[in-house]
Amino acid sequence: MTDNFDMKKFTTVNFLNFALGFLGLQFAWQMRIILSAPVTEGLGADPFIYGLIWLAGPFTGMVVQPLIGALSDKTKSRFGRRRPYLLGGAIIASLALWLFPNSGEIVNHIAQFLHLPLPAVAGLVFAGVMIWIIDACINIAQGPYRALIPDVVPQEQHSLANSYISLAIGLGSVVAAATAPVLKLAFGYQMSIPAQFIMAALAFTLAMTWTCLTIHEKSTLDSEVSEKNVPQTGFWQSMKEFFALSPEVSKICVMQFFTWIGMMCMMIFFTNFAIHTVYGVPDLTKLAADVQAQFMSTQTTATNYSSICFAIFNLICFIIAIPIGILAGKFGNKKVHIISLISMALAYLVMGIFKTSPVVVALGMALSGIGWASVCALPFAMLSRYIKPGTEGSVMGIFNIFIAGPQVFVCTLVAWIINKSVINADGYMNHHYEYTFFIGAACLILAALLTGSVKKNK
C-alpha cells in the first residue's frame, strides 16, 4: 500500500477478488433470511412477533450504517478507512451466527447453572438479541464495503463493480441456500440448522479476511484523505448535504424505499409462506408438542424447498448480474431497472395466485431473480454519479436508510396483517402469507414508475 494511490482500471480478476468478501457476507445474510423463521417459531414466535424480531435489520440499518459510514470516512489507520469495519463486523457476526440457532439450549444451560427457573420466553428473547447482533454487524461491514467502490474503482466502472457485487450476492446466496437440500437429495443427509449457521459463520469470516488482506486500499495515517479533505460534519448536516447533491437523489431514494418494501415482503416471509401456504403446515405455536411432532417432517421438507427456491432466485441473480451491468451501460441504468422491477412484480402476482403449486412458486422465484440482480446493482450505480470524493461512506450509509426504513413497514404493518388474516383448514389455524406478495407487487410497480421520473446526470 502507498499513499500515492493510483486508481487503476479493474480487470476481471480484480473485480472477482474485490467481490469475494461480499460473497461471504451474503452467505451469512442468506442463512439468516432462510432459517430464522423455523428457529424463532420453534421458540414460540407467531407472525407478528416474528416481524418484530425482524425489526433488528431496519433499525440497525438506519442507525448503524450511517454512523459507521461516516466514521469510516474519517478513520485513519495503516489498514485503511474501510477494512477495520469489514473484518470486525464479520468476526462478531460470526459468533452470533453460531449462538443463534442454539438459543433454547443456551438459555436452559444458563438456568441450570444459576439454579433459577427462567420463563419460557427467555429462549426467544436470547434469539432476538442474537439476530440484532447479526444484523448490526452485517450492517457494520456492508456500508463501508459499498463505499469501497468509489474509493478504489474508476468512475466509468462503477456500474460494473456493483454488478460484480450482485454476482457475489447471487453466488453466496445460492451456495448458502442449496447446500442442505443438495446434501439431502444426493446423499440422504439432512444438515442440521445449527450446522448450517456454523457454515455461514465460517464463510463470512474467511471470505472477508481474504478481501481485507488482498484489497489495495490506501493507508490513511498520512494520506491525502485528511481532516481538510473529509468533511467534518454532523449526521444531520450530512443528511442536508446528501439531499442537496441533486433533486434526482431524492427521487432515487423514494424509488429505493418502495423497492425495498417489495423486496422484504418476500425475503422476510417466504420461508413461512413455503411452510404454511405451499405445504399447508398449520401454525405450530398454538399446538401441543406431540401435535407439533406430527408436522415436523413436512416442515423440514418445506424448509428445504424454501432453500431451493432461494437458491434458484439467487442463481438467476448470479447469472444475470454481469449482463445487467453490460445492458445498463448500453441502454442506461433507468430502462434496465424499470424492466427488472416489473418482471419481479409479475412474478409476485403469479406466486400469490398459484400459492399451492410448488413448481409455479419456484418459477416465480426464478423470475424474481432478474429484479434482484438489478436491485443489488443499478440504484447504487445511479446514486454514485452524485457522490463527492471523501463522502462515500456517509452517502452510502444515508442511502441505506431508504433500504432499511421500508423494512419497518413490513415488519410491523404487513406482519400485523398476516397475523390477523387467520384461516382454519382441517381444524388447524393458519395465516394468509400470500398477502405479502400482493402488497410487494404493488410497491414494486410504484418503484418502477418512480424510476422513470429520474433524470440522467449530465
Q: What is the secondary structure topology, with strand pairs?
A:
Layout (H helix, E strand, L loop, with lengths): L11 H31 L4 H7 L2 H19 L8 H17 L3 H12 L7 H31 L5 H30 L5 H22 L20 H9 L3 H32 L10 H43 L1 H21 L4 H18 L2 H7 L7 H8 L1 H20 L1 E4 L2 E4 L3 H17 L7
Antiparallel strand pairs: 1-2
Helix pairs in contact: 1-6, 1-7, 1-8, 1-10, 1-11, 2-16, 3-6, 3-15, 3-16, 4-6, 4-8, 5-6, 6-15, 7-11, 7-14, 10-11, 10-13, 10-16, 10-17, 11-12, 11-13, 12-13, 12-14, 12-17
Shape: globular
Number of helices: 17
CATH topology: Growth Hormone, Chain: A
Described by strand count, sense and barrel closure, the largest sheet is: 2 strands, antiparallel
What Rg, in angstroms, do the CA atoms define? 22 Å
Q: Numbering strands along the chain, what is their spatial order in the largest sheet?
A: 1-2
Please provide the count of β strands: 2
Q: What is the class in the CATH system?
A: Mainly Alpha
